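User: I'm putting together notes for a lab meeting next week and I want to include a structural view of one of the chains we've been expressing. I don't have a solved structure, so I'd like a prediction I can at least talk through. The sequence is below, exactly as it appears in our construct file.
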Amino acid sequence: MGETKEMATDIESISSLLLKARENTVAYIKPVLTRYDMTEQQWRVIRELHKHSELNAQQLAHESGILSPSLSRILARFSDDGIVVRKANRYDQRAQNIRLSAKGKRLHSRIQPEVEKKHTVMEKDVGGDKLSRLQNLLSQITNNLND
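Assistant: Thanks for the context. Below is the predicted structure for the 147-residue chain, given as structure tokens.
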């Protein structure tokens, strides 16, 4: 019985450590994003659309890890600002296909090199081998829990 309590505490500790690690890693790129008046969630949207060329809203929410209500607000702003183009899916008029506009692609091209520099600093500070192992472990955990 004590073993179960101890295991639950360890999982809670892991969850807390993951949140802290996330905040600390985001802190590396936050100054870059702040200069572009962009949140980390907004950057994830731009990054995923650049990576996948075009996604529907459900796919984009999944890939970026952003809940639909927040994603809707981001897409509305990006659409108004001319950063994304949304058009109805030809098979389902209720669904939208979303892609970066030329302006959105230029924005990605300006921000990405600066973010990469910050990632290089983080690799140096933490150790590339440690980050690589962590990425592999987190991928395994995510895949195992999704099965």
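A couple of points you could mention at the meeting. The longest strand covers residues 84-88. DSSP finds six helices and three strands in the chain.

User: Perfect, that's what I needed.
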